[in-house]
Fold this protein.
Amino acid sequence: MTLFFQLTLYLYLLATAVYVVHFLSQHKQVRAVARAILLAGGILHTVYFVVRYVAAGHTPLTSSHEAVSFFAWSMTWAFLSFWWRYRVKNFGVFVSPLISLLMLIAAFSSQEMAPLPPALRSNWLPVHASIAIMANGFLALAFCGGVMYLLQEREIKKKKFGIFYSRLPSLEALDNLNQHCLALGFLLLTLGIITGSVWAKQAWGAYWQWDPKETWSLITWLIYAAILHQRLTMGWRRRRAAIMAIVGFAAVLFTLWGVTYLLGGVHSYVG
Amino acid sequence: MLAESIVIIGVNHKTAPVAVREKLAFSGDCAGPLLTLMNIEGCQECCFLSTCNRVEVIFVASDPAAAAVAVRGFLFAKSGLADAEAQQYSYLYQGMDAVDHLYHVATSLDSMVVGEPQILGQLKQAYREALEQKTTGVILNRLLHKSFSVAKRVRTETNIGGSAVSISYAAVQLAKKILGNLQDKSVLLVGAGEMAELAAEHLVRQGIGRVIVANRTLERAVKLAQRFNGTAVGLAELTTQLAEVDILVSSTGATDLILTKDQVKPLMRQRKNRPLFLIDIAVPRDLDPELNDLDNVYLYDIDDLKNGVDVNKAEREQEALRAEGIVAEEVVKFGQWLEGMDLAPIITAIRQKANGIREAEVAKTLATLKSLSENERRSVELLANAIVNKLLHEPMVFLKNNAPHDNPQLKLAFVRQLFGLDKESSDQ
């Protein structure tokens, strides 16, 4: 089982390296190789989840290792799914390092399978946890898009055409990417909070109990709601939207780790 | 030497920044400058070229050094710069270097964007105006005609125009990087000059959605708008239109800024921060440089645009190298012609001398032979003629054909001595 995880990690790292080579050389064949490696990693990652599910006897989304690994999984598949309808030039070189980084964090977390606490034994566990983490996947892509936007914008604004100008897509395309990922991520985030709240009612008898994770999810949700609202009404597009996508992602990361390690609460992972 | 009398003095995008170039921008036709230049002492021929990237005077003068100072003074008259500074911002080419430079200009090798087609048209126009004012003579006529044919040769034999990279092309590339797909975007042309037209042409070819033309004279705007299926508006509507469009190309002949930061700032809110790409191809500048500080506003002037092209750089460099080869070859050819030009007066002098002797001797002989019939008299004339021509043939061939290692100047001096040409002229 650990073998699957290790192999997946190596594939992701290799894909990252090949994406970097492609970014510098811009040979089409190299990109095809990078994508194939990433796809193989994504498939192996899926296999790893199934194996772990069977071994644990419950949805493997309860430990920090599992959550972060699933986070990486959803980023990979969200990215690969873009291939069908939405191609963004050189997006891979920004996404794959983040995926690899998440996998490295997962690799250094405890991979033990702890028995499921009674409170978490529910059909809501797979629904709530997977939706909430998949939201993170899309929001992470929006973050990558935001970084790319700022890099590209900087070169155009300063009129110094360096490594990014020819390689990155147009500002318009990056802004669309941003909007696309934010909209999907926000939808999933909303669903994650709703399902969590329904589950909380069943488990603890209250929809909302201001557990730190709940509070921070709400704060994150409010940040993204504000971004989307301002975007539609006030024209917070482009540069500001890119910055906000990065700020919003910081809130996501804090909700994921900061809360667990600094604030505790019922959401604290088992492992 | 005849070649040394050809001089080019000028300012271009490489030697002077926009800020300096706009100070000496000449507008309107070239008649005024041409007549002023011809009044410079010793200036025998001249041609005046003024585009948005360069101002150049091509002239032939008997005393090149003195004329050069006067020409530079004329170029920088409005700038208020001292001659020392003017020298720093301008270039001076003399003799074969001048020929080489002119060929570089005509073939666009000296252009901001190598391979751009506009410059040849601009040079032809400059020559046409010089012809109208009758300011060119034997040397410049030949030199300019040659430069056109060299440009044509470079265009057909190399592919430097193939990647079609003009300034407007660079602007279109940038527009795409900023705005993505151009199909649902619109452009506002302010000023209906030649450059605006070119930019619009490129944008239309790239599928821009809508073209709006604003001009001081509405008539010209309507004319240009019709060409691109667009709409024409007056200059007063500038800010109203600016709230809607995505690209603005400004190329007016206005001496002051036509758009400032404070005018655009409130518009950005109205535009809901839709990005705005401003292109300033006017000299002097139309748009406030501070506009670039606004969020989602991207301002490029002509100097900025040259960095915008990076398509097929290696290939273009290769083609440019081939073009350089052609230019070098043609410069040598022109040099040979110039040397032939020095030869011409000698040949004329030799012929004159020989014909003088022949005529005198024939007349003397015929005076003593009065019994000859008309036919016999003609035979004597033909005989004398044939002897002169046959005798002169080999020396002429020797003069005109230069073997690679010959020193033409030395040869000319020898021939002058041989035929006693210098002695005769000093006798007179």
